[in-house]
Amino acid sequence: MSLLDVGMVSFSLLILLLPLNRCFVDTSFVFHTKSNREVIITDAMKRIHHDGFPVEQHNVQTKDGYVLTLHRIPCRQRKLDDHVLQKRPVVLLMAGIYASSDVWLLNGAEDSLPYLLSNNGYDVWLGNNRGNIYARHNIWYNDTQPEFWNFSWHEMSIYDLPAMIDFIRACTGEERMHFIGISQGGTIFLVLNSMLPQYNKHFKTAVLLAPVTYVGNTKAPLAKLFGPLLGTRNYISKILEGVEMVSTNKYVKKFLSMTCLKSEPPRACVSRLWPAVGYNTQMLNLTLLPDLMANFPVGGSFKQLMHYFQGYMSKNFRQYDYGREMNWLRYHQLEPPAYQLQKVTVPVILFFAQNDYIIALEDMFKLIKHLPNVKMLYKLPPKYWNHFDFICGLRVREFIYNKVIDEFNFYEYHHR
Question: Which uninterrupted H or E stretch holds 375?
């Protein structure tokens, strides 16, 4: 397979599928409201402002030199029984693979989870991992160098997430926060607290929406098709370890969103997602497709996906496999060590779905078995609820977001 072939495969897959570390507010952005289309393809700062909420932007530097962007929606005053509540609890949200802050905002001002949290008095922070459109800088490498893209979600867990958590703690003065992660966002939370268990103490609760850990029984066509090639050590997988997975070219993204809006029936547009998330997309909110195509995917590495493919092949949830020789040098053992999930002591609330093509029920139950502090399990009632529906599903506010806020409110105002 030539590098050109690899590039075409990567594009096809995902069509389907400064002083830093200080609490500095960046408000230098241009805001336009000429049309809904401009709002769809602009960034999180503009979208949040357009939706009528205050917004801040902060830059954070990781220990290995990546510069990440955090978006903050400062909390509003909240009243309970005519008394202004002084608590301003912090919530950090992390999106899934090849996504960014923007995906949390697609449901609009009335139904997006960050806005609902803000209206309930929470101090909302939207994180971004290395490689997406808000985190494409490194103090030692530029994004045209293979070294920049040689990371998986393991590095996001042990470098990106700690940097964001430490920054939020310093900026707000709050030592503990709630966490919400979807898909890969759940992965990095679990890896962080298993690899660096001292961070458990900084979380009050964690809501994990379809967290991807064990994938040995996944029904995802991409894993079945490419897992045997990209989930094992060979010449191609080694080359791809330093390659960007998807382009963030704004003209490509605009083209995709415009064709979804104007040139294709909704079912034809959504069919691009089928090989990645499965064929039953009956619960997907089709009116959000132009927005989804304009804001996903937004950058990342091949190594992220290959790490998941390795899990599919090994049927385990473990660190990246570099081959027996390099594993010995890195891990002092021939096989990658498994993540020690028993070290994750944060109270965890899990949401999962029967029709999730990424996470089979067998794999979800395996995860539950390994976690020592599962507080609540929510199995989504709609039979056809799929992986993307956790963000863009019909009635997502009713089935998920209201329950999340109820759980947080109970903790804040009834927990002893």
Answer: strand 374-379
